[in-house]
From TrEMBL:
Lineage of the species this protein comes from: Bacteria, Bacillati, Actinomycetota, Actinomycetes, Micrococcales
Biased composition (Basic and acidic residues): 51-74
Database matches in Gene3D superfamilies: 1.10.30.50
Name of the protein this chain belongs to: HNH endonuclease
CDD domains: HNHc
Positions of region (Disordered): 51-98
Length: 98
C-alpha cells in the first residue's frame, strides 16, 4: 500500500468502483481487468488499480481507475504470494510447478 492509496479522491472513487464491481459479479456480469484485460470472476480477488499509474502522472479520477486482479496489483510481497498460489493450483491439477 503506497501513500497515494490514502488520497481522498482515490479512496472515494475506489469505493465506488469496488461496489459497482461487486454488484456486477453478483449479477453474473463479466468484469474486465484493467491490468491483463482478462475477466475477473467472482472467486478471484481484485483491487482497484490505476490504468496509468499515479507515479506516471495518472489521476485518481474514475476514468483512470478500474478493477484489477489482486495478484497483479501488489508489490513484491504480493507477487511472491501469487507465485505460491499459482504453484499450488498447478500442483493440484497435476501440472509442473515451475
Ligand atoms: Zn488481470
Amino acid at each position: 500500500m503506497t501513500s497515494h492509496h490514502k488520497h481522498p479522491t482515490y479512496v472515494r472513487n475506489a469505493r465506488i468502483i469496488r461496489t459497482a464491481t461487486n454488484q456486477r459479479l453478483k449479477s453474473g456480469i463479466a468484469v474486465q481487468c484493467i491490468g491483463c484485460g482478462g475477466p475477473i470472476t467472482p472467486e478471484q480477488r481484485f483491487d482497484v488499480g490505476h490504468r496509468i499509474d499515479a507515479s506516471r502522472g495518472g489521476s485518481h479520477d474514475l476514468d483512470n481507475l478500474g478493477p484489477q486482479h489482486r495478484r497483479e496489483n501488489r508489490s513484491a510481497g504480493g507477487r511472491i504470494g501469487a507465485l505460491h498460489t499459482n504453484a499450488q493450483s498447478r500442483r493440484a491439477r497435476g501440472l509442473p510447478t515451475w
